[in-house]
Target: 4Fe-4S ferredoxin-type domain-containing protein
Amino acid sequence: MRVIVDLTRCQGYGQCVFLAPDVFTMRDEALLYDLQPADEHREHVLRAAAACPVQAIHLDRTALSVHQPLDREPRPQPVGGRIVIVGASLAGARAAEVLRRDGFTGELTMIGDETREPYDRPPLSKQVLTGQVPPEHTLLPRLREVDAELLFGTPATGLDVAGKRVLLADGREVGFDRVLLATGTRARPWPDAAEAALDGVYTLRDAGDAVELRQALAAGPRRVLILGAGFTGSEIASVCRELDLPVTVVERGPAPLYNAMGGVIGDVAAQLQRDHGVDLRTGTTVTALESDGAGRLTGATLSDGSTVAADVAVVALGSVRNVEWLRDSGLAAGVWGVTCDAGCRAVDVNGLVTDDVFVAGDIARFPHPIYEYQFMSLEHWGNAVAQAEIAAHNMVSDQAHRWPHLSVPVFWSSQFGVNIKSVGVPTFADQIVFTQGSPAERRFVAVYGYQGRVTAAVTFDQAMWLEFYQRQIEQAAPFPPDFRHVGGKARKAAGAGGAGRADGAGGVDGAGGVDGAGGVDGAGGVDGGPVPARVPERLVAAAGVTVAVTGHDPAERRVSLVHPR
Model:
């Protein structure tokens, strides 16, 4: 039996812990579980899944004696043809199941560059690194048997949109009527290839990475150096402290999680790390990884001139979208991902929507109506699942029955004993206010607003409120919230706060900082007013890619991508 919990949906009620304690455990609000429990726990797991009040537990339905009903009835008319899915991770696997669920009866082919079955990645930086769960127990549960040709271990190298062919590394070509692009991302490597190849330097993206890093941590290094304090870097730092390993985190930004949640929550995360013994260095970068001359890492030199001695370094500098294979496809594909419409249909370089090419998951760059139709790419578990379902449904539907991808982004992280969840896009904001709880105690709800409406919320060990705030975002509720809430007084919008900005009143020592009236320990708590959100400047990932327009007559006028030399 395979188990997976949608931790973006889980609200920490804990019924599963009581009903199947050998499979599910909870640390504060952070749920941990065995993704592939022994058969002896089967009945307990079934009871736990049935009792979950938010239905967040998903089981491998092919392993059950009685198949549970699916979410929707199959399409009344079967749909044939040939569909190819390029990418066999979470989004690709989910899309294959939905295609069969929604009545696709034709040929289905899945192409993936890894040789193993689709598996869940979030446990890699958590349970796998601590040794609580072996990598082989992270396989994704199957919601139904999928009749498909599986071409695993064979990466795609090209896409011929006009000829409707996917080109493979081994020279084969796979034809299609419709194709779904879901190739995801890979870890961004350290830019110096020689330094990146040193013994002791790691990245974490796939199961093989997790196995290697787990072995390095289990060997008891003198110090672990982590480059980057985003979610992956912070989670790895948490694991190191759990294993009682000295760890130094170097972050270019002013605080951990800054790029995802802004400076106010970043300040809370920074103090959380330091309280757990992390040597956190913000506002600085690693300029060089040092070696002993025999290919072994010995430490690093930082931009402030200091040095750190370490025998393990983890490069956690974000990700790179796997789109290089689409370079000559004619699609609008670049460092930003693959541009698509809200129905997951890919857009070509001329800005025209394609009919037979769809995109889902981490590489999809789509317009979100809630956020002023701005194009965004979301590397979230929940987004990959939701977008895969939309794409698969639309691939077998006519124009009148296609769905838009309107899911509000939801994300979660477990680090240093705290369950962190967010809904919406925190960086799409100019102000933030703590509506419940205490930032000083790391148990709170923070709500983000932009131009007078709620756009996001972040919870620390208060997950049960996330669904409520998701409805507030969907309904364009006014910001600051004017309802009476648990743990504080009603807050009225009149006269509350000023315009958000990245400095001044929102700085560390100003009215919106850690020590000021709007900060972690001041009036920015549950009874205070809004303060500047201190979010990073919105940047467009161009990396030098631009376009050249040719032709004069409208019938021949076209665009081509121009890549940097």
Summary: The chain is about 20% helix and 30% strand. The radius of gyration is 24 Å.
